[in-house]
């Protein structure tokens, strides 16, 4: 089962938590809270049972989440295989329009060749991908707008 993110805003700021209370509040195992304590979550005092201030816990969890972010500089798209922002291969990007003014940027990773996707505003393509060849492709037709409806039907003929 993949790990899920802990919501730091479930912790009340003006409350102190013991290890089991904090684990129940965040929906994690109590050993996870002890690992956090080993990694830098500070207890109120050094005696047992360990008590954690809600404000210190929330600050610790928020700094952990923000330190893991990898913002994409202009001209790059995040590659999930490389786990880093990568430039598109051959400097080619496709823009597939979506609803209203937004759409998807699609490119291949320069390092590993994996397809990369990024959501973008059509008006901001020049600032997101400066100096790259962006090909604007037509959006795929919708199911309702088809000229020939599908004849595959489970309804028996009358």
From TrEMBL:
InterPro entries the UniProt entry points to? DNA-bd_dom_put_sf (IPR009061), WH-like_DNA-bd_sf (IPR036388)
- What domain of life is recorded for the organism? Bacteria
- Alphabetized UniProt keyword annotations: DNA-binding
GO molecular function terms noted in the UniProt entry: DNA binding
Annotated protein name in UniProt = DNA-binding protein
Q: What is the lineage of its organism?
A: Bacteria, Pseudomonadati, Pseudomonadota, Alphaproteobacteria, Sphingomonadales
């Amino acid at each position: 089962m993949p790990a899920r993110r802990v919501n730091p805003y479930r912790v009340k700021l003006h409350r102190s938590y013991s290890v089991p209370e904090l684990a129940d509040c965040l929906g994690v195992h109590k050993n996870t809270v002890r690992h956090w304590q080993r990694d830098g979550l500070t207890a109120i005092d050094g005696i047992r049972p360990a008590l954690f201030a809600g404000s210190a816990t929330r600050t610790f969890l928020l700094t952990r989440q923000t330190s893991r972010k990898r913002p994409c500089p202009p001209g790059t798209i995040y590659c999930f295989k490389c786990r880093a922002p990568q430039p598109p291969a051959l400097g080619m990007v496709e823009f597939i329009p979506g609803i209203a003014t937004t759409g998807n940027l699609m490119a291949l990773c320069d390092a590993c060749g994996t397809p990369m996707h990024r959501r973008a505003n059509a008006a901001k393509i020049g600032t997101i991908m400066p100096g790259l060849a962006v090909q604007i492709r037509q959006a795929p037709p919708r199911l309702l707008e088809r000229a020939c409806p599908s004849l595959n039907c489970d309804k028996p003929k009358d």
